[in-house]
From TrEMBL, chain A:
Keyword Nucleotide-binding in annotation: yes
Protein name per Swiss-Prot or TrEMBL: GTP-binding protein
Catalytic activity of the protein: GTP + H2O = GDP + phosphate + H(+)
Residue numbers spanned by region Disordered: 1-24
Broad class of where this protein is predominantly found: membrane
Compartment list: Endomembrane system
UniProt subunit comment: Component of the GSE complex.
CDD domains in the cross-refs: RagC_like (cd11385)
One Gene Ontology biological process: cellular response to starvation
UniProtKB/TrEMBL annotation, chain B:
Record keywords, A-Z: Capsid protein, Cell projection, Cytoplasm, Cytoskeleton, GTPase activation, Lysosome, Membrane, Nucleus, Virion
Protein name: Folliculin
Comp. bias regions, Basic and acidic residues: 51-64
UniProt GO molecular function: GTPase activator activity
Keyword Chloroplast in annotation: no
Length: 385, 549
């Protein structure tokens, strides 16, 4: 994913220039609205996930005073809006809440689990109530955040409590049908990436197709678990239907880091760099790249050719293949299954082609849609004239 | 000028909040109650509606905030947005809490400046609040610090100068503030942009550098403390994570500006600055066409001379500016340049200097039309109120009646008139010498200049007025342009005179008679500032309406 610089926009209609295409509020990409009380960790999440900011550095973030809007360009384009916790954006005298909440997307509500969360819950209820009023299609995601300091038991209790109170509250006002999802997150581990993955997956219409493709690939190649990752943010946009266990997810996600690091060091000058030496990591994992390492961090076309293999000392093999500019497939399989890697390579090529077809279809329909939109507006003009 | 200046802050607890406002009140429009809080601001607030005067009288305490955030605490409770006064020497008369300051304008007793946390007028409050929210949480300025201008007709127009200051206790170690200048007139606001921005910048950098110093000091102290006590820490256990440590503090609001900057009279100074800005800005903007006349009365379009130019005879108009109308003998002196050509440098200089420093001119001649044309040329040189004319008299009239006197050729000037305060010009044309060309026509004039100020005064030292005037006359400009140029020249000098007057009356309240006792060194300072010469002082004083003795 490539990021445009963190921009701040006025939500007031600008007095000069009604340049529609430039206007962020006219931009119809899906929106992720990150809301919550102040200091709940909204900006930290946004920085850690989309800017690779180390978690410790978030201690020094200044408080957010304006909506920070960020365009994310990837396999799907979307926007992330980081809100200041102090301001009530439903106040119709000052803000046009229909514009803010009217777009297709998700509202992420962040609750600081280390703090007393009663006030946060009140705010959550208000927010759900009023945002739902304005946009029935908004999905609501509740991040019970900063759980790193909580014991496992306490985590579960907290989640249960929050979930219970919220559903009760919403049932009282007749909103029991509004779907809310709850996640336990922290920026100090992978949980925030996992939660974000699930949030984003809901915004991808092709998700069932992708999951299907992954299932087919896994069953035909003897793969235990496969993730389709967005390389830059380490969000996985799809996985096969076998259950996700945290450890597998973490190791797969770490592998992307390894590949990015290596390609950043060695992949800059030449797009094909042979690493002949064997590299040993601390945990005795043997890294073996079979020749082609693409430059990941910056999205070059060679990223689709990247491939890497790591043999773990527990008899498993981690295998990474570039799929396109933004995506990479990371799978975990037994090393005896890896014997037939000619087959795996073949299957993988098929998979890659299928993915390309899926997104090509989407691109074409988007184009058609745009054309139709244009034709529509033209004919409207004719009627008007 | 209706405007309000305020300081606003993005508070960690409350979000955007107004900290302090200063507003000007005019005595005729605001009632002056002792109790600050109940002062109605009707008529003098930018957005106040004249018609609903009494409902707008609401006190601070019982007003409901129009912009309520969910579960937001009352704004007054937060220390970081609190506004406070230095400890007073005398006890306040009211036992109630003091809500603001009042400053009287020494130069204009009708005006008072009031500083308080919020404006009292409900509608104005809403406008300020809106401007505050918008400038801190919506508007974006290049580089984040600096000025932006926004607004609409409903809520007024706003110039907001955003800046951040260092605070070792704040998140990210900084806090955001903004100076807001709100008024209804967009054009005024845009015009005063350079002035306001420069003043706000000075104020902001002052606060920033103070905060920086304290920030450095606190940081150094913190490091020292950490080094010293790290190993020998006793007492309660240290917080387990830095975030927990920060959070513990986060639920308490940050320090107020008074505590942060360690300056007890911060708000007093701020109020003084705001009042000054309001005053200076108002003065700056209220400039009107001088002397209630249009800037260019002989404007090119309507000037009778332009029409004359269309007359075929008028084409014989020469470079000397002598214009002949309907036959050779209808002659008049068309402009100052022509007069200069006739009189020559010395006589011209003497005549003009006598006139502009306030002496009486007596113009006589064999043809009243010539006298008239001389008078009408001369009067263009001074402001209207410095010029009273009697064009065609048979008896001498004193200087108290007129300072330009058109007198019949034979009348004598009485002996008891102080000859150094009058200057007499006799000008005649010999109609027998029929002119062949322009030069010759000019030579048909004869003149005689008598009395007036000492020649020594004229030549002793440079005089900027006359030198500038001569410089203009020497420019080879077309007539219309020359007239315009002289007009501008006059406006420049009358503005100098006004500034001089303002300075003098501003310094001592006794007003106009004060100039005499005003000490000379001070006058010299003003002179330097006005870019004039010591010899111009009589002129300036005369123009400013000050008596010269
Ligand atoms: N322990 C812990 N602290 C966090 C986590 N996320 C954010 N923080 C801290 O929470 C504080 C406030 O974060 P910030 O993102 O600025 O809050 P915002 O006002 O919601 O944008 C910072 O000091 C972060 O370091 C987390 O997952 N765990
Ligand atoms: Mg933030």
């Amino acid at each position: 994913m490539s990021h445009s610089e963190g921009d701040e926009y006025s939500l007031h209609t600008s007095p000069i220039g009604n340049d529609v295409s430039e206007d962020p509020v006219q931009d119809h990409r899906p929106r992720l609205l990150i809301m919550g009380l102040r200091r709940s960790g909204k900006s930290s999440i946004q920085k850690v996930v989309f800017h690779k900011m180390p978690a410790n550095e978030t201690l020094f973030l200044e408080s957010t005073s304006k909506i920070i809007k960020e365009n994310i360009t990837s396999f799907i384009d979307f926007q992330v809006w980081d809100f200041p916790g102090q301001i009530d954006y439903f106040d119709t005298a000052t803000y046009d809440s229909d514009v803010i909440f009217g777009e297709y997307g998700a509202l992420i509500f962040v609750i600081d689990a280390q703090d007393d969360y009663i006030e946060a819950l009140n705010r959550l209820h208000q927010t759900v109530l009023r945002a739902h009023e304005r946009n029935k299609n908004l999905t609501f995601e509740v991040f019970i955040h900063k759980v790193d300091a909580l014991s496992d038991e306490y985590k579960i209790d907290t989640q249960r409590d929050i979930q219970q109170r919220t559903t009760d509250e919403l049932a009282d006002v007749g909103l029991e049908n509004v779907p809310l999802s709850f996640y336990l997150t922290s920026i100090y581990d992978h949980s925030i990436f996992e939660a974000f993955s699930k949030v984003i997956q809901k915004l991808i219409p092709q998700l069932p197709t992708l999951e299907n493709l992954l299932n087919i690939l896994c069953s035909n190649s003897g793969i235990e678990k496969a993730f389709l990752f967005d390389v830059n943010s380490k969000i996985y946009i799809a996985t096969d239907s076998s259950p996700v266990d945290m450890q597998t997810y973490e190791i797969c996600s770490d592998m992307i880091d390894v590949i990015i690091d290596i390609s950043e060091i060695y992949g800059r000058t030449t797009s094909f760099h042979h690493i002949s030496d064997e590299i040993y990591e601390d945990n005795q994992t043997q890294v073996e790249t079979n020749g082609k390492t693409g430059n990941y961090g910056t999205t070059t076309d060679t990223a689709n050719d990247a491939a890497s293999l790591i043999k773990l000392n527990n008899g498993m093999v981690l295998c990474l293949r570039g799929v396109n500019r933004f995506l990479a497939l990371v799978c975990l399989l037994r090393s005896d299954n890896f014997e037939k890697h000619g087959l795996i390579d073949y299957n993988f090529q098929c998979f890659k082609q299928a993915i390309a077809d899926v997104f090509e279809l989407k691109r074409r329909s988007a184009e058609r849609f745009r054309h139709e939109g244009m034709r529509l507006s033209v004919s409207e003009e004719n009627v008007g004239g | 000028m209706n405007a309000i200046v305020s300081l606003v802050h993005f508070c960690e607890v409350d979000g955007p909040s107004v900290i302090f406002c200063t507003q000007a009140f005019h005595a005729n429009s605001a009632e002056d109650n002792l109790d600050e809080v109940s002062v109605s601001s009707r008529g003098s607030s930018p957005v106040a509606d004249q018609t609903h005067s009494d409902n707008s009288r609401e006190t601070l305490s019982n007003r409901k905030e129009p912009f309520v955030n969910i579960n937001r605490p009352a704004p007054a409770s937060c220390a970081s947005c609190a506004f406070s006064l230095p400890p007073l020497d005398t006890k306040p008369i009211h036992n109630s809490e003091i809500k603001g300051f009042k400053t009287r304008d020494e130069e204009n007793p009708l005006v008072t400046y009031k500083g308080s946390r919020y404006p009292q007028d409900q509608q104005l409050y809403a406008a300020v609040r809106q401007a505050c929210v918008r400038s801190l949480s919506c508007e974006f300025c290049q580089g984040r610090e600096g000025p932006v201008l926004f607004g609409d007709d409903k809520n007024g127009y706003v110039l907001s100068y955003m800046f951040k200051i260092k605070d070792s206790q704040a998140r990210g170690f900084q806090r955001w503030y903004s100076f807001i200048f709100l008024m209804t007139d967009r054009v005024y606001l845009v015009e005063s942009w350079p002035f306001l921005v420069s003043k706000f910048r000075i104020l902001a950098t002052g606060i920033q550098s103070k905060a920086n110093q304290i920030f450095e000091k606190e940081n150094a102290a913190k490091e020292e403390r950490n080094d010293g006590t790290f190993l020998t820490r006793s007492g309660p256990l240290p917080p387990t994570s830095p975030d927990q440590f920060l959070r513990r503090r986060a639920n308490q609001p940050l320090r107020s500006l008074v505590d942060l900057l360690k300056s007890k009279d911060f708000f007093v100074q701020l109020h003084a600055n705001f009042s000054w800005i309001l005053k200076a800005c108002g003065r700056h903007l209220q400039e009107k066409p001088i002397n209630d006349q249009t800037m260019f009365p002989n404007s090119v379009v309507f000037s009778p001379k332009t029409i004359m130019l269309l007359d075929p005879i008028a084409t014989c108009q020469s470079s000397f500016g002598l214009n002949c109308l309907k036959g050779d003998y209808e002659t008049r002196i068309e402009d100052l340049k022509a007069l200069y050509n006739i009189l020559g440098l010395d006589a011209f200089r003497k005549l003009i200097l006598n006139f502009v420093k306030g002496n009486q001119l007596i113009i006589r001649g064999n043809d009243p039309r010539i006298v008239q044309s001389v008078i009408s040329n001369l009067k263009e040189l001074v402001p209207n109120e410095c010029c009273s004319i009697m064009e065609n008299e048979n008896n001498y009239q004193t200087i108290s009646k007129c300072n330009i006197l058109g007198l019949s050729a034979t009348t004598q000037i009485p002996d008891d008139v102080n000859k150094s305060t009058v200057c007499s010009l006799y000008i005649s044309q010999d109609y027998n010498k029929s002119p062949k060309d322009d030069i010759a026509r000019m030579n048909t004039f004869e003149f005689d200049l008598q009395y007036g100020i000492d020649d020594k005064w004229i030549y002793s030292a440079p005089n900027s007025f006359i030198n500038q005037l001569l410089g203009i006359l020497k420019l080879n400009l077309p007539n219309e342009l020359m007239n315009t140029r002289i007009m501008i020249f006059k406006e420049q000098w009358s503005s100098k005179a006004k500034q001089f007057l303002r300075f003098i009356t501003g310094n001592n309240n006794e007003g106009r008679n004060a100039s005499a006792n005003m000490d000379l060194t001070k006058q010299m300072e003003v002179i330097k500032y006005l870019d004039i010469n010591e010899n111009d002082l009589p002129i300036i004083k005369f123009w400013a309406g000050l008596k010269t003795t």
